[in-house]
Amino acid sequence: MELALVFAFIASLGTTLVLGPLVIPVLRRLNVGQVIREDGPARHLGKQGTPTMGGVLIFGGMLVGALAAGFSSPTALVVLGVTVVSALLGFVDDYLKVVKKRSLGLLARQKLLVQVVIGLALAWAALKLGQDTVWPIPFTDRAIDLGALYPVAVIIVFMSATNGVNETDGLDGLAAGTMVVIGLAYALVALATGRLALSGVAAALIGGCLGFLRFNYHPARVFMGDTGSMGLGGALAALAVLTGTELLLVIVGGLLVIETLSVVLQVISFKSTGRRIFRMAPLHHHFELVGWSETQVVWRFWMVAAVLAGLGLLGLRGLGH
Questions:
Q1: DSSP state, residue 319
Q2: Cα 250 from Cα 245, distance rounded (Å)
Q3: Rounded distance between C-alpha atoms, residue 299 and residue 60, angstroms
Q4: 72, 77, 173, 261: which has the highest count of C-beta atoms within 10 A?
Q5: Taking a C-beta distance cutoff of 8 angstroms, is the pair 205, 32 a contact?
Q6: Which residues of the chain have pLDDT under 50?
Q7: Overall number of domains in the chain
Q8: Quick check: pTM over 0.70?
Q9: What's the CA gap between 263 and 239, in Å, rounded?
Q10: Which structural domain range is residue 48 located in?
């Protein structure tokens, strides 16, 4: 069965690499160019108009890789379903922003409502598939039984994961490379917890993200957009929920947590004191503004992501798996 994991990865990688030269020119002709923030680092203004919605490449590869390798169990289909629906939500948001020129895309309440529905659906599916409401605490022998609060907790996990990937997606290759690292960690988590099908889906996710890096690494020819970030966040949340490692995700996906917290702290500080903690949030932009090159930030953040993912894997010992 290990060969199936390799096949899922290779099929996903190959599909994404083949789709790239076909899809990117189409996106360019459709004029779905990224709008760059004027208050961001000045060197980013040269990226104005780079095609976005490139997340379709990742998920095209991921679906082909997982299904072609035979990973179509109910748990695998739930992860793929959550991924696709989340990506569709991001696609609508991208479409409204870059095609309809609605600067904020979907209204916050519209996006929130759909995310709540997806989170509830994920919680319902997890319970139907036999997942319990107990969350083990990493590095301890303790656990939390959420009981009736389980659906609410899953919604929070889903929204946190999608927002975390979205905040991290601000430099060429940063989010895609980070998800290669986190995806590898979750492929190992799924194997360690006896869920081969979920490991196969994670392997396909890795292949899709790695193939996407071929076109997204600096200087990027395409951006993943909300299509990519929301789909990847949905996939990550579903993998965490269906492996029963929701709290472990905080460590394994630690870089996503750090990026999100930098935004939260910046907003709180500015609104309460009028002062900024960082030169710019999310955190990757702060390091750009203190003099790091874009590729330096990306590689160093990838290394931090790898260290945190490795630390999270050590926490499996305390989860009773």
A1: G
A2: 9
A3: 26
A4: 173
A5: no
A6: 320-321
A7: 1
A8: yes
A9: 25
A10: 2-319
